[in-house]
Amino acid sequence: MSFIEVKQISKTFRVAKKKSGLKEAIKSFFKREYLIVKAVEDVSFSIDEGEIVGYIGPNGAGKSTTIKILSGILNPDFGECKIAGMTPWKERVKYVKNIGVVFGQKSQLWWDIPAEDTFDLLRDIYEIPEEEYQSTKNDLIKKLNLEDIINIPVRQLSLGQRMRCEIAASLLHNPKILFLDEPTIGLDAVSKQLVRDFIKRLNHEKHTTIILTSHDMSDITTLAKRIILIGNGKVLYDGSLKKLKDQYETETTVYVKTKDKLDIRKKGILKKSKTKDGYQLLVQTKELSISKLLPLLSRKIEIEDIEIENESIDQIIVKLYEDYQI
Amino acid sequence: MKAYFTYFKLKFISGLQYRSAAWAGIATQFFFGFVYVMIYIAFYDSGGENLPMNIHQVITYLWLNQSLLALVNQFSKDQELFKMVKDGTISYELARPKNLYFMWYFKVLGQRLSNVVLRFFPLILVTSLLPKPYTFGGPSSLFNFLLFLISLTIGTLLVTALTVLYPIITLTTMSEKGIVNIMISIADILSGLVVPIPFFPLFLQKISKFLPFQYISDLPFRIYVGNVDILFGIHGIFIQTIWFIIIVFFGFSLMKKNLKRVVVQGG
């Protein structure tokens, strides 16, 4: 039995259907039509303690709904779920002591008062012993670089500063599981890096199990070895990121800078086009690996410079979404 | 228990930060207070008969009403809770190992007390220095005053329980506009915030006897000015307490029921 065991969870929402226009608005006043939206359908997976899992999918795929079910906020219509031996929505109050949540689009800090006051409130809510609280807090302050911002009213913090405080607030009670729902949304490169490094370190030092959703694929690649892809409420892929990359990363663009004329025809070179100071080749790497292409090129021409562009993970994801038609 | 008290404390502290809102509130309540007082003075001067309160009782009642308005009214809803339901920040509250009903209850209580603390003293101070008949008078006896304090406390607990009910209903209706706003307007009228209950037509007095609203502020104010006898006051405090228990129990179970099918809005 794994640490987190999710079995065939389904959840539907009833959404009132409304067409635009005055006539339709009046009509819907008397007779409402509803649309049943399947937010998640038959979702199953299991996660071991200490794993970092990237939970990805396009907007509206059901990521946040799953996170909310796993954190005990929503009741699913069907399905079972055991996390650390408990069913989140049945033993909510007892269960949530073990988890920390960060919803990137919402705030748990009190707007008008400094973050430290919210921390004190959380100490009382989670009934953290004073000594433990102080040492965890100081540790978080150090690692997330909060000394200068913790005493400023939250309304005056920048988004990056606030998000660091949000993450600290979620970890004061040393949760075993951390749910991160788009923790880097809207952050600049430096703050993103800081947040990622911190999450990595947390997983490493405290063995915290982390479930992460993000639309920024570099979050996923730097943090998660395993990803779960969800689309239209269903799990479409569950496995290592590397395998996915190998499967989808099949084409590479090579830029060659040269003064010579290149005449090359070989299986695996899909496209050749002239650029300002050289050539651009589109290579199918399964047919012709880069290590074979290079000697071939150097025999024919004088290479001044060469640039190999791998497909970015974002492009892979776009392809993946297209393949699954989500 | 300590956690709930911290909630109360934080809300109280953050409420105290809005000083200009408090000054604006004081000015508004002065203005409305004077309008009401002058209307009643004109009304009494024109020689009404069989009036249920004497003019000094009415005016003291009206000033009490204005200076404690932030504590006893229901129309200044706790915007934070409605916002929480509407934009989905409730997710965070549900991820806490505490009962959501009591977290909300103590938030609202803290908010109300911090609002009234800033407004109460300036109003009472100035209005008790006014010349007769405009002046705010003292309690009719020391015993009445003690009874007033007890019933105002329970009234505050009761109005807090009622105010927490509205965001809980919003969990189903998704927006506080509509039914909730209508309920609040009716509740405020039946609390005696617009016209003191003794001036109500008889049938409305009979109806409001069976509703919790007149036990919020009308009862304590009438005890203060000595408009009801002691026995009636003690009897009223008893009913107040029962209403308080009923409303808390109702809100607690309604929340439990609504959370089972809660929908978090906004992604």
Protein traits:
heterodimer, A: 326 residues, alpha/beta, Rossmann fold, Alpha-Beta Plaits, 6-stranded mixed beta sheet, 35% helix, 29% strand, globular, B: 267 residues, mainly alpha, 72% helix
What's this, in brief?
Chain A folds into two domains: 4-246, P-loop containing nucleotide triphosphate hydrolases (Rossmann fold, 3-Layer(aba) Sandwich), CATH 3.40.50.300; 250-310, Alpha-Beta Plaits (2-Layer Sandwich). Chain A has helices at residues 22-30, 63-70, 92-95, 115-125, 130-143, 159-171, 189-206, 217-223, 241-248, 290-300, 313-323; strands at residues 4-17, 33-47, 52-56, 78-83, 99-103, 177-181, 209-213, 226-231, 234-240, 251-257, 269-275, 278-284, 305-309. Chain A has 326 residues and is an alpha/beta fold.
Kindly describe this structure.
The complex is a heterodimer of chains A (326) and B (267). By secondary structure, chain A is of the alpha/beta class. Chain A folds into two domains: 4-246, P-loop containing nucleotide triphosphate hydrolases (Rossmann fold, 3-Layer(aba) Sandwich); 250-310, Alpha-Beta Plaits (2-Layer Sandwich), CATH 3.30.70.250. Chain A has eleven helices and 13 strands. In chain A, the strands form three sheets. A six-stranded mixed sheet of chain A has the order 5-6-7-3-8-9, sandwiched between helices. Chain B is globular and about 60 Å long. Chain B has one domain (2-260). Chain B is mainly α and 267 residues long. Chain B is built from twelve helices and no strands. In chain B, helix 2 (19-45) packs antiparallel against helix 3 (55-67), helix 3 (55-67) crosses helix 7 (100-128) and helix 7 (100-128) crosses helix 8. The interface between A and B is medium-sized, with 31 and 27 residues.
